[in-house]
Amino acid sequence: MPIATNWKSFISAKTKGNYYQIFHPVNNFPDEKGFDLKAFKKYYFDPRNNKLAATKSGKIFAYVFGYVAPRTLIAWSLLLIVNNILVYTENESYAQLKSRFPVWVLFYAGLPVIGLLFLERLRRQDFRRYQRPASDAG
């Protein structure tokens, strides 16, 4: 029973985060223009300089989690499906690779890496939104 409850909570949080990411995007941007990408990334989660990060960190978390979590789980699931197909079809090359190297380590190490890649993609998308003139920001 506790496992089912944890999954329901996770799915519920993921769904709410995805809703906020799509329908209520957070403009976690500096007030002034002219930041380069590196400075923008530094500002993005910095509660000392970013008023929104200091006051509404839950809103930012929901926005980021709603973008990163579904995409990460989908990409990771696709990798696991490829693994299962290769195992099921008894692919000789893949069987040799698995005998020489613990492939499962790559799957579990890949999960946070995929998440970080999607976080980077989100910050770059937000940087492009930040650079747009105010008249285009619709």
Describe the structure using short key phrases.
138 residues; mainly alpha
Radius of gyration: 19 Å
Q: Report helical residue fraction.
A: over 70%
The mean pLDDT is: 85
Q: Largest sheet, if any?
A: none
Count of discrete structural domains: 1
Question: In one word, what is the shape?
Answer: elongated
Number of helices: 6
Low-confidence stretches: none
Structural class: mainly alpha
End-to-end span in angstroms? 45 Å
Order of helices and strands: HHHHHH
Percentage of residues in strands:
under 5%
Strand element count: 0
Description:
The chain has 6 helices and no strands. It is mostly helical. The protein has one domain (2-24, 33-136). α4 crosses α6 (103-131).
Short note summarizing the structure:
This protein has 138 residues and is mostly helical.
What's the structural blueprint in terms of helices and strands?
Elements: H1 2-23, H2 37-44, H3 51-55, H4 57-88, H5 92-100, H6 103-131
